[in-house]
Prior knowledge:
The protein has helices at 12-18, 40-44, 52-59, 79-98; strands spanning 2-6, 26-27, 36-37, 64-68, 101-106, 109-114. It is an alpha/beta fold. It has one domain: P-loop containing nucleotide triphosphate hydrolases (Rossmann fold), CATH 3.40.50.300. It has a 6-stranded mixed β-sheet, with helices on both faces. The chain starts with a strand and ends in a 7-residue tail after the last strand.
Amino acid sequence: xxxxxxxxxxxxxxxxxxxxxxxxxxxxxxxxxxxxxxxxxxxxxxxxxxxxxxxxxxxxxxxxxxxxxxxxxxxxxxxxxxxxxxxxxxxxxxxxxxxxxxxxxxxxxxxxxxxxxxxxx
Length: 121
């Protein structure tokens, strides 16, 4: 599994396309039978903190998981916002443990954090 993280509109799905996945192979719907899932940070909002581990196990079955980084900005004043950031951070940490490759995309440029990207890029 490849985990792709980065800021909003940083080029994460463009990277997945360069890996050979079409738009039709990408979905934000966890139930979709697509190899690529994006927007997984939004899935965390539907789960409590204790279910993040279970969500990570389901997501790890995908070929590519794409998540917006939510932990690099201003810390929210509301407890709910802080819990959301923690849950997304925990989810990404769990996925990174299982991933063969972890890539952070900044300004459209992939930065490999773990493993290697396939050669077609």
